[in-house]
Amino acid sequence: TELAKIRNFSIVAHIDHGKSTLADRLIQLTSTVADRDMKEQLLDSMDIERERGITIKANTVRLEYTAKDGETYILNLIDTPGHVDFAYEVSRSMRAVEGSLLVVDASQGVEAQTLANVYQAMEADHEIVPVLNKVDLPAAEPARVREQIEDVIGIDASDAVEISAKTGIGVPDVLEAIVTRLPAPKGERDAPLKAMLVDSWYDAYLGVVVLVRVIDGVLKKGDKIKMMATGGLYPVERVGVFRPGMQPINELGPGEMGFLTASIKQVRDTRVGDTITTEKKGTDKPLPGFKPSQPVVFCGLFPVDSAEFEDLRDAIEKLSLNDASFSSEMETSAALGFGFRCGFLGLLHLEVIRDRLEREYGIDLITTAPSVIYHVYLRDGTMLEMHNPADMPDVVKVDRVEEPRIKATILVPDEFLGDVLKLCQDRRGMQLDLTYVGTRAMVVYDLPLSEVVFDFYDRLKSVSKGYASFDYEMIGYAEDQLVKMQVLVNEEPVDALSIMVHRSRAEARGRVMCEKLKELIPQHLFKIPIQAAIGGRVIARETISALRKDVTAKCYGGDATRKRKLLDKQKAGKKKMRQFGRVEIPQEAFINALKMD
Ligand code: GTP
After folding, report:
1. Atom of ligand 1 nearest to the CA of 17
2. Above 50 in pLDDT, residue 524?
């Protein structure tokens, strides 16, 4: 296709502002899909994504649109993930296209992720077309939101397209704006092949499918390609486009987007952002700025039933084949036996993987406290990258500990500002900025990542009644007074409950954990002390009193079925327990004990 007839774009929006609905409409209007095949949110392919209403993997679709000028254009829409955990994937996919539709819900206005995503689009030098969505809602205030976009983001919103993705009003204008306002891609057909690896995933029939954007040259079936970062060489088997189903074509020329398959065995062999060229006469200049995405949050995953260890191993292996940003290595815990230490891009990523292990593979899991990567500097001058508090060296060997910090941007209506500030303060935050976006406050905080990974987002939603929006980026490491706190149940340390805490918060944290565990661990026939300790020093303590009576005693010996039921119920409850020495700890205790309300 001629470059002048191609437009490549993404849609950036805050979650729920209507990105997927608009994408569906665009597909429908260009009759890329027959009406009867149209199902909602076509681009979100995985079930779990659909259930949670989030888009995880970048996805793409090729639309053919005959514009008012009578010409037919190829429009490649790339769908980007909407969550902070996948920020790196968003920034890569942005670099694969030339323009963005900035979708803002006209009844809500600009939110934290609107800003984060539009800044990424601007960094990628995109032409941006503002789209005000949901104008069918009585609460829509397009004029106000237009002003907000100009004030806060600093782009001209006078030509913003007003639409309702739901009813379809205004959507044809969006197609016209894509053609007239977004630039055509640039590239040279005669140059050596240079293509960006935008995304990849495993397909049961085709093996690894690679989504590419060709910058220069031509990609054809039979080419022998080279991945520049990994050095891998592969013969191309298929080249095609998404409409949105996969459709083979002969070649992808400059400016085009599509897929290739090439007997690549695992998704791990493909790196998002890598440059693809040909083995012979290839380019020697890779695209700039490639970096593999790195896990930032780690936790242990252990089967509740140790007999399921092998099943867990298989399941983790399968999931890793398809997700290069998920890491795992075997771990043994004195308390939990054999399991895996796994690394994730963030908490949502962790939850998605855990859910899939439990639901798709049917494995009950114990998840240990999520931890960030600490930099532990030892007195002998070496530095240890610590992923697991259980690995914390003896304090006498430690010179200092540094932890990762983030810059968090929060938008919140004024009435909840006080509570939000308090929450950030409680999480050891340092305020960097406080300004106003219309009637809402925009606060910027420097916060320790460890204080955010666990339940910060839930707490933020709860203190703001769901109105606050949040986005963050990593800013680096800083030293602080960090110590390892252990929990002892019946005098035995439970390593899965070890956490790193700030010295000044240790007592309070320890007290809350002991109190929670007291509630979460059922009574036994003997007294169970629960203690929190730093080094050898106990800083908090609770005791679970001994259980005296048989649970069936209160059935007055009469009703046998009732007694049976009660015993069965006890047995079922037991399945989700884990034995520690003489004490049984329920599965949920591991996570719930760590929540800080
Ligand atoms: P994520 O995929 O989770 O990032 O969300 P999204 O931005 O793709 O939003 P989505 O398209 O899923 O829309 C969110 C909700 O808003 C859904 O319930 C839609 O039905 C609704 N919605 C989208 N567009 C409109 C609109 O124009 N008017 C109205 N009233 N509702 C809309």
Report:
1. 7
2. yes
